[in-house]
Hints:
The protein is about 40% helix and about 25% strand. It contains 28 helices and 34 strands. The strands form seven sheets. A six-stranded mixed sheet has the order 10-14-15-13-12-11. A six-stranded mixed sheet has the order 21-25-26-24-23-22. A five-stranded mixed sheet has the order 2-4-5-7-6, with helices on one face.
Amino acid sequence: MDDLLREFLTETSESLDVADVELVKFEQDPNNAQILNNIFRLVHTIKGTCGFIGLPRLASLAHAAETLMDRFREGRPVTTDAVGLVLSTIDRIKLLLQHVEETEGSEPEGEDRDLISLLEAMAEAVDAPATPPPAPPSQPAQTLERPLLPGELPLDELDRIFRETKVDPITPPAAAPPVAKAAPPKSAPAMPKADVEAAHGAAQAGEAHGVAAQSIRVHVGVLEQLMTMVSELVLTRNQLMEIARRHDEPEYKVSLQRLSNVTGELQEAVMRTRMQPIGNAWQKLPRIVRDLAQELGKQIELEQVGADTELDRQVLDQIKDPLTHMVRNSADHGLEMPEQRRAAGKSERGLIRLSAYHEGGHVIVEISDDGRGLDVARIKQKALENGLATEAELAKMPDSQVFRFIFHAGLSTAQKVTNVSGRGVGMDVVRSNLESIGGTVDVRSRQGEGSTFVIKIPLTLAIVPALIVRAAGERFALPQSAVEELVRVQAGSDHEITWLNNSPVLGLRDRLLPIVSLGALLGLSPERDGRDEALWERALIVVMKVGHQTFGVVVEAVSHTEEIVVKPMASALRQLPMVSGSTILGDGRVIMILDPAGLAQHAAARGGAAEETSHHGAGRQSRASQKRSSLLLFRAGSRDLKAVPLGLVTRIEELEVARIERVNGYPVLQYRGALIPVLYANEEVQRVAAGTQPMLVFADGGRVMGLVVDEIVDIVEAELDLELSPSNMPEVLGAAVLSGQATEILDVAFYVQVAFGERFRHLVRASERPRLLLVDESPFHRDLLAPMLNGNGYEVTACASGGEALARLGTEDGFDAIVSDVDLPDMDGFALAAAVRGDPRIREVPIIALATAQDRDALERGRAVGFTDCVAKFDRSGLIAALKEFTGRQGIAA
Length: 894
C-alpha cells in the first residue's frame, strides 16, 4: 500500500468518526449553524478526496449526502429520518473503506443506487415545501439583430449557462514590486474538478491547517520500538545504580546521577507520546447511545466529563470494549421507560454520565445513571439459582457484596433476552479485561435512584514504580500505587495484632484490617501459629488499598523502591493467581510482580469476618469508664432496634433451622452436648423454613437458652439510661436513646423465666461446677459478668465489697478462684489480695484482678501484692483463659 492511500484511509476514518459525533449533536441542536457547517465541510472533503484518489463509488455516496446536508444549510427543517439516513451513508462508506484497505486501493463491485436514491428523494422531499429563493433582478431584454448561425446558442440560453456556472473566488495576490517584464506563463495540467472542490473545502477549514501543520503522524510500531528501547535503558540504569550502591565509587556518582536524570526525562517524554485522551475511547458512544435510544424507545442523554484525561494508548485500547458494554447496560438495564420515569417523578429523559479524572497514579472512570438502580432481591435470587451462594450466606451479606455477583458469568437480572443484553455474558468479561491490566471495578447503587460503576486503571503498563519486598527468602515487587503505608508492629505501639474468628487483624488507629502473610499466601512458608505471639512480634506489614478494600500484607523486609519495567508472563505461567508479570532488577535477578487485586481477594476471603466486626471490635478493646455499657443491637420482627447488655450474651450463633426439634410442642436444640429451649423474641420474628437465623445464647446458673432474632445490627458503647417502660410489654425493661435512635431494652430474665419457668425445668449438679467468688461494687457489672461466667460452666457467688468477700471466705469453703475488681468501696482490691494471701487457709486460692487496660501501674502493683493474674475488665476471653489456667479446672460448658 502506497503512502498516499494510507494517508487517505487514516484521514477519512478520522473524519467519519468526527462526523458521527457531530451528527448526533446536530440532531439534538438543529439550529446550530456551526455544527452543520462542520459536518458539511467533512462530507465535502471526503467527497473531494475520494474523487482525487479515483474512488467514484465512494465519491457518489458522499456527494448524495452532501446534497442533503446542503439543503439543511439552506434552512430546510431537520428530521430524525434525514439524520439517520446520513448516518447510514457514513456506515456504508466505512464498509467500502474497509474493502479498499483490504484490497489496497480497489473499490468493491456493485453500486449504491438504493441509498443514493433515498438521499436524493429525501433532498427533494425536504426541498418541496420550501419557499423558492427570490428571483435575481431582471436584466434588460437582449435581442440578436441577425439570424443564428449553425452551432450557435440563443442569448437566453447563454445567459442561463453563465449564471449557473460556479466560479471559485479569486484571492487577489499580494502587492509585489514591479518587474521589467513578466515571464510568460507555463502551461499546467487542468486540476480535476473533484480536486478543486477538495481544495475549496480545505480552504474553508482555515484555522485547522495551522494546527495540522504542528503535528506529524508516527506509526505505532515506531513508538512501541522506542518504548522498548527506553525500557531497556531504564533496566541498564538500574543495574548501574545497583553497582554504585555496592562499590561506593565517588568518581562515578555524578555521572551516574546525570545519566539517571536524563533517562528519567527521556522516559517521561516517550510516555507522553503514548498518552492519549480518554475521549478517544468515548467517540463512538454518542452514536451507540443514540441508536439504543431509538431501538429501546427511550430518551437518553449522554454527558461526558473529563474527556481530555490522558492515559497510555495500550490501556486505552483495553478499556474501549468494557466502557462500551457498561454504557449499553446502563441504557438497557439501568434507565426506565419514559412512562415509568414519569410515574416515579423523574424526567422522561434519562441521563448517563461518563466522567474521568486522575487520582494517585491512576485514572478513575465513573459510569453513572439516574435509573432504577440494582435490584438486590433479584440479584440474590439469581445468585441462589446459579449456586453462587447459599440462602444463609445471602442473608448475612451487605448489599455492596451482593452487587458483585453481577460480575459472575451467566448471571443476568434482565427479564428477557434481547439483542442488546440479557444473556449474562459481558460483565464478567469486563471485570476480566480490567483486572488483566491491573484495574478494578466497583459498583454503588441505590434502588430507585441509579447506579454508579467506578473503574480504577493504571496510567501506564510499561514502567511503574514498585516496592521491592522480601518474603520466605524471595523478593517480590508490589506496585506502589496500591501501597498506602508501612506499619511495624512492636510492643508499646498503637498498632497491635489481634484475632477475630481465628483470623489475624491489625489494629490501625480507629479500624481493624485483615492481614495475610505473603509467604504463606504464595505457598512458600507454612501458616503462622496465630496464638504464638513471638512469631508476630515486630511484624512488618504493608498496608494496601484496592478499590474500597484496605488490608495488610505481612513481609519479612522491605528492600527499596524502584521503577520497574513490566514484562509479560510466559503463556504457561499466565494463569498463576496473584501474579501480574515479571521484571528484572538492577542486580540482574528476575522477580515476580504481585497483583494487588489478587491479594485483595485472598485477604477478603480470609479476613472477611474480621472486617465485618472491625467497627465493633475496635470499641471493645478497652473501656476506661464504668458508667458506659456495651449493648448488642439487633432487629426482631419490625425495623425498630432492640438491645440487650452484651455481658448477658454468652454467645451469638447462626442457628440452622433444620436442627430445631420439638419437646411437648416447644422448640428445642441440641447444643454443645445439652438440650436447650429455643424462643423467638416475639411473634413477628420471621420463621424461615430453611437456612440459618441469628440466635443469642443466654445462661443463668447452668440454665442455657437460645433467643432467635432477625438481624444482628451492631455493638455500641453507651450510658444506659432507661426513660420509658411499656406497661403492656413484660419482655421490655424500657426504652433508651442509643446512637440517636429510640431502642427497646429487652429483659433477658423474662425470657429465661418463660423458658424454664413456664415450659421446662432444668436439672444441674452443682458439685460438678467450679466455684468462683466475684467481687465488684457495680451491680450492673456483676449482672454482666455473673451470667457470662455461669454460661461458661462456673458457679458464681457475687459480693459488692472486699469486706463481704472476706466474710464469705471465712464462713464458706470450696471456692476455686476469686475474681475481683481493683476499685472497691471499703477496701480496694490490693488490700483484699493482701488479706487473702495472709490467711493460711485460703492463701493458695487464685485471685484474678479486673482493671482498665490503660492502668498499667495498677496491674504491676496487683501482681506484687498477690494477684495471680490481671486482665482487662471487658476481656471475657482473657478472663476465661486465666481461670482455666490458674484453677486447673474448666467450667462445665454451657
